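tmp note - Nipped-B-like protein A
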Amino acid sequence: MNSANVDYEDACLIVRYLASMRPFAQSFDIYLTQILRVLGESAIAVRTKAMKCLSEVVAVDPSILARLDMQRGVHGRLMDNSTSVREAAVELLGRFVLSRPQLTEQYYDMLIERILDTGISVRKRVIKILRDICIEQPTFSKVTEMCVRMIRRVNDEEGIKKLVNETFQKLWFTPTPPHDSEGMTRKILNVTDVVAACRDTGYDWFEQLLQNLLKSEEDSSYKPVKKACVQIVDNLVEHILKYEESLADSDSKGMNTNCLVACLITLYLFSKIQPHLMVKHAMTLQPYLTTKCNVSILSTCTTSHSTHTQAKVLYIYIYVEVNLNLHTLLDHS
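out:
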């Protein structure tokens, strides 16, 4: 290569190559191994500093988190006896998993278990990371599970309860722009998937969350949660009508019936907390009340019944809920 033709980029490449050939540059694995070894020291302060040191190394090259020795080291500190060390390990993951989707998959199982950590600060950090993953990586396969695990902390310590409320206000109960139909559909599917996933454990958490959020804006002139609820209910009804129409297609009947039941359960939960949102849809849903199912199963609508029967029962539930509150609503109007 003619030195007269070496431009700035070529010069940088040459310098990097020469630097990489120096003994210090070739000692990376040795130093990283030593840092990982220090993570096992008996002194808490030393382990915490080692985690912070490791975080600085990862900041330069997040890809090293994919190494097996790094996985073992981080996992060990996530299980550390010290809250400060566990928090430092969670913080390390939180800084970098968002920028590398493959790392989210790799460290997910380790991270999700820390939502039950005995340390409040650790649980808070985990919830913040899970929230950011839901927002930044909405197509991640574990989004539903993450939401379920987060929302179950709705009755946790006051600070965490507040964080959970804020998290789901951002995820679900912030009004969606009218032109963002894709975002609205994604929200509806996320909400109904989470509701369906909690079928066996009950829905008290959802009611508690919705009540908390609505109460928080009672004295506010701007009510984003209420507006978001209107959007969700309206779109749930649209989805229900769409699923009902598609049930004639035998190829997708099973899947659509399950989706229909999930939408109906979600709509029923909204109708319990905000029945007035359903009034304008009452006549729309009334034709679907025709059913031959036994009234006695109204109180025992479980997975032991067919999804078709469950759907019919849920229509009745919703309609009854709205009618029970209709006189009260009219009195206040």
